[in-house]
Amino acid sequence: MAEELVPIQENDYKELLRQAVAVIENARASVAFHLAATASNTHWEIGRLLHEKKLESKHGSGVVKRLSVDLKERYPDMGLSPRNLWDMKKFYLRFCNSDAKLRQSVALLPWSHNLLLMRELKDDDAAIYYYSQETVAKGWNRDLLLNAIKLGMHETHSVPAADNNFESTLPAVQSQYANEVFHSTYNLGFLGVTKPILELELENRLVEKIKLFLLELGKGFTFIGNQHTIEYNGKESRVDMLFFHRGLRSLVAIDLKIGKFIPEYAGKMNYYLSLLDRTERQEGENPSIGIILCAEKDRLDVELALEGITKPIGVADYKLIIPKEELQKTIAAEIQSFEDEHAEDKTDES
């Protein structure tokens, strides 16, 4: 007897899909975390071996070249060129006497990230620790990490968390977590904006590069959709961008504004969150959270606008264009890096 098909409501299916995506993303993050830690330990131990054998570039180059040939024969996909082996020794020497927290922090990073940190920051332990922590927390790829370094984000990371009312609208533990998840400023320089654009175009560009936007937001976000329609009481409302955050167990609505924050935006977001909680929030989920992302904000205006509002709302601003001076530095650094690597590769081959 054929098994009877059980119909499923559209909202139930969307929740099933969202939970399945969350399971897969969590598993992928766990695998990536484990692989990065294992690779870092491998590089550390090989670097330690080269140091203990007292191999130096002047009189040990022949040994390292031979070691590279034999290792690549056994492990052709591991990136064991002579240059990489010397970098492993540099990695070990750079951090072997460092604070335990710093060693643990860099151990979680991909190899290319650690090479970038050593090249750009050299002896600045505090900056390396900051960027390694941010990379793990936000899932930065190498390009985003380089961009953050060139913008000098470690020099301004003491800026208070995003203006919000989380403390008065969320339980203490969730409020603290939300303040860690959301930020005061987001860098959207990866959009390549060079002239004024409309809000819808800004939204479309973010959707086109949603993976980069998710990296900037940080870990745990799943994109649900843009211009997300909420139907209630015979009316339709649209949220610019809707996400779900696994850790917070909350829907996250983002309202994009190309201009300065004005108090009316808070009331509109409060309405959206009420609709989401009433129509789409599932059993076991926490209250929906709203983020108003605007070009500029005044802290006092935000404070007054959020006073008395019962839904959790944060206000953040964004940077669309990398300053010309910073962009020139970034390009120059990348050109120099390429030339250095090309020269070293030629040396390795000789």
CA(first)-CA(last) distance: 73 Å
**From the structure provided, what is the oligomeric state, counting identical versus distinct chains?**
single chain
The total of beta strands comes to 7
Put simply, the count of helices is: 14
Strand content bin = 5-15%
Which bin fits the share of residues in helices? 55-70%
Output the radius of gyration.
Answer: 24 Å
Describe the 3D structure.
This protein is α/β, with parallel strands linked by helices. It contains 14 helices and 7 strands. Strands 1, 2, 3, 4, 5, 6 and 7 form a 7-stranded mixed sheet that branches. Helix 4 crosses helix 6 and helix 10 packs across helix 11. The radius of gyration is 24 Å and the shape is elongated. It starts with 9 loop residues before the first helix and ends with a helix.
What's the short version?
With 350 residues, the chain is an alpha/beta fold.
Task: Tell me the layout of helices and strands.
Blueprint: H1 10-52, H2 61-74, H3 82-95, H4 100-106, H5 111-121, H6 125-138, H7 142-150, E1 163-164, H8 166-169, H9 172-181, E2 185-187, H10 199-208, H11 210-217, E3 221-232, E4 235-245, E5 250-256, H12 264-279, E6 289-294, H13 299-306, E7 313-319, H14 324-349
Parallel strand pairs: 2-7, 5-6, 6-7
Antiparallel strand pairs: 1-7, 3-4, 4-5
